[in-house]
Amino acid sequence: MEKEIKCHLCGGNSILKFEELALNEGKLIIKDSPYYKCLKCGESFSTSEQMQELSEQINTKFSFKRPIINAGRSLAITLPSDIVQAYKLKKGEKICIIPENNKTLRIKVKQAC
Known about the structure:
Elements: E1 4-6, E2 13-23, E3 28-38, E4 44-45, H1 48-61, E5 68-71, E6 74-77, H2 81-86, E7 95-101, E8 104-109
Antiparallel strand pairs: 1-2, 2-3, 3-4, 5-6, 7-8
């Protein structure tokens, strides 16, 4: 990663910086997330490579593999305690499971479907 690049807005010199990035209302913290800060206009921005790396980091480090289990005549998936605590989930609460395609389900908590 280059330590200095040109600003996409003003053409000034932008330097590589790192800071803590809080996502999902602070539930996910990524330390030392890289970005560029322009010394001329003050604009902060990330390159497409930085955004791709961040996306990969989120998908690998912040994903949980869970087995599908039997619960009576249904199938069920348990939630890790870290997720339960972070989202303040309680037994009996309803969640929305939204099929996005044949390989992706999205889960919404504490929202109406």
